[in-house]
Structures are given as structure tokens and as C-alpha cells.
Amino acid sequence: MNAIEFILAGMLAAATPFLLAALGEMVAERAGVLNLGVEGLMAFGAVLAFIIVYQGGGHLLGFVVAGLGSAVLSLLFAFVTLGFRANQVAAGLAIGILGQGLSALFGKTYESLTVRGLPKLALPGLSELPVIGGLFVQDIVVWISLAATLALWAIFAYSKIGLIVRAVGENPKAAHAIGYSVISVRVLAIAFGGAMAGFAGAYASVVYTPLWADGMIAGRGWIAIALVVFGTWLTGRIFLGACLFGAVSLMGLAAQATGLDVPSQLLSSLPYLVTIIVLGIISADRRLLKLNGVASLGEPFER
Amino acid sequence: MSAWSLAFVPTLVRRERASLAAALCAPVIALGGAITLNLGLYVLMGRDPVAVVYAMLFEPFLSWASFSEVLLKAGPLLLIAQGLAIGFRAKVFNIGAEGQFILGAIFASAIPVWFPQATGQWIWPAMLLLGAIGGALWASLTAFWRVRLNANEILVSLMLSLVAAQLLNYLLLGPWKDPNGFNFPQSVMFQYDAMVPTLIAGTRVNVSFLITLALSVAAWVFMQRSFIGYKLQVGGLAPRAAGYAGFKEGWAIWLSLLIGGFAAGLAGAAEVAGPLGQLQRSVASGYGYAAIIVAYLGGLHPIGIVVSALVMAVIYIGGDNAMVSANLPIAAVRVFQGSLLLAYLIAVAFVRYRLERRRAAHRSPS
């Protein structure tokens, strides 16, 4: 298998944690809430899923518990920012630190243990194609994530729910005036974002690299937040961005496998460096950000 | 017969003036709340709450040896938080102090690593200065990205922290590894003149603590008494007004980040030239993130930050004690920090709002 085949085969799986977390954050941000706690929410979901699977609860239960657990933790964020109108940046950081602390606390006795991942399912026919065949051999979660991406795209493009969420993010006062409860919509959007971050963490700890180690999320949650900016709050572009980061995080492995003489630390920092560079390129086009940006992002709502 | 519903909905009502009493009480209430919450957690984990309280909250004060460690720990937290708070007040959210701290440690270590034989009283001051410059340079990347490329400073500064950690790893596993260090990822031990002189005999508290206190006074003068500090605060509170008054936003971002990076870099330098005495992986032990909490808990005020840095240092040292005597995992300190900031954010709401119990708006038939 050459490097390109290797990257294509692994890209979607590597992209899945980024994709899930970024989609959740996109929904929260479209409702006008900036939740910077994604890294901690992912870590919390990751440890919960790992404990369930390690104790023999199975992957499905692991994902459910991770999603619920991280959603509950994100409701704490909602309580502080919506209930007490706290600064969203500070509250997000607090949730991030809390989530990472809780994950380390709960995961202490599971450090470096492993579980079994999920089997890969091949799409008959397509998976036998040369070079790109690997794209069609994926575990079930990848397929579900792709379906979720499509569903979210459709919801925001065609449904009333998507419209309400956007209205609440764009102009909460107007949304309130025509009878929508801004607070309820935002609470639900935050909880959805939390659950998605939990799933993303679960994927990282029980499917992608099925082991638990403190700090294993390694900045993926932060990159997911950056992805929402890269994707200019649009589902399709966020998906493409996640694929880019899936490929970038595999590039390190591919380079090592081919015996390239580059320090491994440089390869490990590649995703962070790419984030910095892409963030600069996309943000420099202020029009692009203004066009799709969320007008009331990060601002507390007062009647 | 109809009656008003008895349902009372607690509602936050904006105060006409911010309450100073609430501002002073908020950190105390938050601390009390966080302690109660975390003790509950320890009891759930099957730990003896009395032993934990004793180890965490009393032991750090019971001996001079222990309290001097609190001062030692408070130093970097205080210094970094003073720098960050200036930026936070100007609404520049530099959360990459961890990376700026690491770069400070690396820059400072360059002198003893490259010139291990050098002697002279100039070495440790030069290291501190070089470290501060290193931190400011690392922060200037974020400033450039924010001002020239319009990129979000939160994400860029955080990413740069992750890169800095990798850079540290690279140096300690590669070119800067101590050849006689049994393959440990650490540099050579620094020579005598590369160490900041001790301040209090028999403890590890050194002269950098005095520098930190002096810079805290400087931060107070800068923020509360100087025109530049005033301009920064106006820019943070009312960016549009500041724009009309001719205060440039880009200039405020540069200044905020450079001050923050300078302080964090200096703290990193003081750490390697002080208690560590060499460049180690453990130099990056989360000071940069904890200092964000210290800054908020101190109300972003230079005097408040002095107090909150001491509180946070007690939690660190107490957490270490509890790890030994009450078998508490060290991750408990991070949980405590996170819940403390959340509790503070709730408590501080009452500075600008008061809680009123309002009747539910609609009539209910009975």
C-alpha cells in the first residue's frame, strides 16, 4: 500500500472525531453560543465510553453513556452562561479544565489499558476499486457520522428547526419577539453539541485507538472548534475540513513508515501548525467570515 | 374565582450600579462552594473528608517549609496571571500562556546549555531577560495572526502552546539532552551562576519572587493609574467608543499579547533558573492554564490576583499533600480548578445583577 492509499483508507476514520465534535459545536455556535469546552467534553466522553466498554458493556452502550455524560456536563455550561449570563469564554475554559480533570480522575485505574475496536465493513464493489477502494472500508460509526452530516445539512437547509436555530443565533431579540424561547433553543443546542463531543471522544477511545491514556484527545477538541471557523459554519465545508485534518494526522504516520528523516515531534505538531496556517488564510478574508458568521456569537441574551 | 398563580420565577435583574460588596464576596463564596462540592466528590470516592481537608487546606500553613513551597508555587501563577489579566480586561483572550511559559524556559536555558562553563553574576539576570523576550516573541506570533490575518487569538495561542510542548520534547530528546543524563529527557544541570539567588535561607523561595511582587505593583500602576492602561480598559469595555476616541484596536492587541507573553516567559525562565535548575519536561505543568483561573478569580484586578494566586498555590501544595496522605489522585486538583472557576462565574453574576422572585406572568384559573 503506498502513502496515498494508506491516507485515503484511514482518512475518514481519522476525521470522524473532528467531524462529530465540530458538527456539534457548529449547532451551538449557530444558536449563538461559543462553547470552548469541547476538548474537556471529548475527554469526558472518551473516558466514560472506555470504562463501559472495558467493563463489558459493549460499544453501543459506551457511546450512549458518553453522549449523555458529555451532554450533562455541557448543561453545566448552559447553566452558567445562560442562567447567570457568565462570560462564555471563561465558562468554556472552565468546562474544558473540569472535563479533562474528571476524565483523568475517572480514568486513573484504566491508564494504558486497551479494548477491542469495531470491525470494518466493506461496501461491496466500491471497496475493490484500486487506490480509492480503502475509502469504502469503514466501521459502522463512520457511516453513521456521514449520515449525521447529511442530516444536519438538510436540517439547516430545509427545515423549520434549522431556521429557528439560525434566527436565535442571528437576532435573539427578534426570535424572542416572535415567540421562540431563546434560552430553550440555546440549551438544546448546547446539549446537542455536548453529546456530539461525547460521541467524538468515545470514537477516539474505543474505536480509533482503542485505549485510554490521560491527555489522549491531544487538542482534537480545539481543532474541532477551529474547523467550525474554517467551515464558515457550513456543514459541507466542515466535513471537508475534517477530512483535511484526518489526512494531516495520518501524514505523520505515513512519513514515519516511509522512513522520512524528520523529527517525530514535528510530525506530531503538524495538525496544530496546519490549524494555525489555515486559520490565518481563512480569517484573512473578512468578507467570507462576515457572510456566514453568527451575528450574536458569544453574547449573553437579556430580554 | 381566580387567583394569581403562586409560582414565583427567580429572575436576574440588572443592578443600576455594580455592587462592590458582591464583587468582594464572589471569590470567597465561590471558594466555599467549590470546596463543599469537591469534598462531596471525595466522599463519593470513598476518601476520608477530614483527612483531605486537613491535608489540603491546613497542612500548607502548618510549617514554614510547607508555606515557603506555597510562595514558590504562587510566584509563576501570580506573574502569568498579572500579564493575562491586562489582556483579558482589553478583551484579548490570550490562553496560550502555557506555550509562552515554555518558550521562556527554553530561551533562558540556552545560556547554560550552550555555555555551561560561563561564570559571573550577569548570567541569571540575562537568562530571565532572555526568557521574557522568548515568551513575548512566541506571543507576537498570535498578535500577528490576530491583527494582520484577523485570526481568533484564543485558537491560535492555544495551538501555539501545543506546538511549544512538542518543541520542548524535541530539544530534550534531541540536541539539548544531557549526554550524561542516563537518557532522561532533561538538559544538563545548570551551573551555580545560572541560578537565581535564594531569598530566604533554607527554602527554595528566590529573588524572582521579589521581581514578581514588584511587577504586580507595576501592573497595578499601569492598569489603575496610567493613561495607556486606561485606554486598554476602555477598548475592552466599549470598542466602538474607543475607536471614535482614536484608540487603535490593533495596537491594544499587540500590547496585551506582548505584556502577557513577557510575563509568562519571565515566569518560565524563573522556573528553570530557580527550583528546577535544568530544563525538564515537567516545566510545563499547567501553570499557564491555572493562571487563567487565577486572573478571573482575582477579578482581573492586580491586588485581587495576588490573593487568588496564593489561594491557587495552596490548592496545588495541598493537593500534593492530599495525594500522599489521603490517597487522592493529582487530577483532583484540575477538577477543583475547573469547578472553582465555574462557581466564581456564578457568584460574580451578582455583581451586576440581583435575584428577584417574580410572579409568573400568566394567570392560572382555579
From TrEMBL, chain A:
InterPro entries linked: ABC_transp_permease
Membrane topology recorded in Swiss-Prot or TrEMBL: Multi-pass membrane protein
Location of the protein in the cell: Cell membrane
Keyword Transmembrane belongs to the record: yes
Pfam families: BPD_transp_2
Residue spans crossing the bilayer: 6-24, 36-54, 60-82, 89-110, 130-156, 177-199, 211-231, 238-260, 266-284
Assigned keywords, A-Z: Cell membrane, Membrane, Plasmid, Transmembrane, Transmembrane helix
Cleaved signal peptide residues: none
Name by which UniProt lists this protein: ABC transporter permease
Taxonomic classification: Bacteria, Pseudomonadati, Pseudomonadota, Alphaproteobacteria, Hyphomicrobiales
UniProtKB/TrEMBL annotation, chain B:
Topological type in the membrane: Multi-pass membrane protein
Keywords assigned: Cell membrane, Membrane, Plasmid, Transmembrane, Transmembrane helix
Cellular compartment(s): Cell membrane
Segments crossing the lipid bilayer: 20-45, 92-116, 122-147, 154-174, 194-221, 253-274, 286-319, 331-353
Keyword Chaperone applies: no
UniProt key word Protein biosynthesis: no
Classification via CDD domains: TM_PBP1_transp_TpRbsC_like
Protein name per the record: ABC transporter permease
Species in which this protein is naturally found: Rhizobium indicum
